[in-house]
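for the record, two folds in this file. i put them one after another cuz i was lazy. first one right below, seq on top, structure tokens after. the second one comes after a little note so u can tell where it starts
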Amino acid sequence: MANVSVYNMEGKEVGKIDLNDAVFGVEVNEHLVHMAVVQQLANKRQGTQKAKTRSEVSGGGRKPWRQKGTGHARQGSIRAPQWKGGGVVFAPVPRDYSFKLNKKEKRAALKSALTSRVQENKLIVVEELKFDEIKTKNFKKVMDNLNVNKALVVLGDKNENTVLSARNIPTIQTAYADSINVYDVMKGGTLVLTKDAVTKIEEVYA
């Protein structure tokens, strides 16, 4: 069972916390992590691209010149792909890129992502993150105290002041414990969890 330090908002160590091995100490499955990231990015794709094939381009109904005797290569239409203004050979059409991952695979991928953060020493547990007012400067000061530049900050309970204080910092992303995903965990740099977020994650995924 991994034992990590708990810090306060001033960056001082105030205790220790044991992380549940069922969530933060599993065997990392890189293939599942990769699949979860690919799925999330694929599901975001609009798939609305479209170009016209030679059958859809207007014009070109008649043969531009006779088959033989002109000295030109034979042509059947001025809208063939080799002509300016012609159709596209294998034109893209609207399509759905999304695909499905099983529930068990998604859970295993997220556990692998969380475990990898622990193994790489990129997980910080904070006692709490509470602000009396919405102020980016105050949030930035806390991140500086923790020596964190790029991070995914996961909160346990709804905390509007914290979320709004962080949203103007481009390298910081916030999320709630019940809505984290593999892509954000892997892309976010350091994973900063509040104590109540750790409890909620362990309750859901253990």
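(here's the note) second protein begins now
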Amino acid sequence: MTKLTGLTLVECPRDAMQGIKTPIPTQVKIDYLTHLLGLGFDVLDCGSFVNPKSIPQMADTAEVIQAISGVQSMTKLLVIVANERGATSALAFPKIRYLGFPFSLSETFQRKNTNSSRSGAFKRLGQIQSIAEVSGKEVVAYLSMAFGNPYKDPWNTEEVTEWAEKIASLGIRTISLADTLGHADPETVSYLFEHLQQRLPNIEIGVHLHAKVEDWLPKVNAAYNSGCRRFDGALGGVGGCPLAKDELIGNLPSEKVFNWLLDRNTSNLKIDINWEECRLLALRTYQGIGI
């Protein structure tokens, strides 16, 4: 895949794997991520340095990243961290470019996800940003529950804007709006993007949407037409946050979404990717079968 100016495609096998209860063998993960690094995605969300009791599937992240660090690729690595300890662990790997931090607009979900209040999580985020700055890494702040929540916590677009501005004030330059439970509708997606781009013109605003396989297009179309150029997806549409709800709403299916985006971003570029082959490989990997 050739890099397209202005379009950032983030493949998220970490988000696909983390909710799978059956352990995927470490070597299977290594083989799969090595394959993905050869496809040319801009960013690979490849693991997380979090408490393994919370996310057992990610307990081998250090071993996996150590193994794939020797792969020659222009793709940048991203890992999720929930506190300063996780950020410090990531510093041991020069190949990691981005530290992703999940900040929730829902107070209830913030406590479920990172065992912290929103004010405590914001303080942690500032400390992680300081760690990143001195180490040459960058922070990607995920605004989870950005389109509503099931806990009856207050939510409105003004609150999304307020917290996005607070996060930007820390010096963070990438914010991704996460539709954790698939609540987003095209009208809200369009409004938030247009509004945030006006308020934060120097910040890259992306989307980490969750949707059923048949429901991705209206949301992606709304984001793209409103100026969004950073999209997260997972081959096969697998995934979702295991701490959000028992029934997971899947990630955007990369094989559909990324192909759709690439078709609209250029009319002359040939993309040499067999998307169906990639989808099937992803599903075999997530079942622990591997390549």
